[in-house]
Amino acid sequence: MARDDVTRAAKSFFEALNHRENARAVLSQLNQTVWFLVEDGTPFRIEVNGGVLKFGRGLGRARVKDHEDYTHFRTNRETLRRLVAGEIRYSDAVIPSGPDIGYLRLVEKWMFKKHVINWLGRLIRMGQEGQKWPASRPTEGWKGGG
Question: Domains of the chain, with CATH numbers?
């Protein structure tokens, strides 16, 4: 997948969450900016404010007055491609269980909040599984999609 194709896929993946009632409920839980520094691609950010997610190219600047917090991840194009395609789980990228899993490394943040990491994981999982996202289910051997 070409450099901009991965960014477009991520944009479509995240923006689609705005159109789902169950995802909007999760989006409304936090005002948050998440930066993705893509080492071999185009960096981007998602900004969630008032339950609406906006995708932006580049990292922008943290605006503390507008967002309670921001969180910054370092990753690569292949990990992003696999995440938005549902080929790997968010938890496997954050805590890689093998050498070929990919990585989504927490780099820096203003005020560490574990619930932000969990919140982002819920959003990514909801995006991967579509409208039929269950609250919990076994993940051993999970291949994404549904």
Answer: 3-132 (3.30.1050.10)
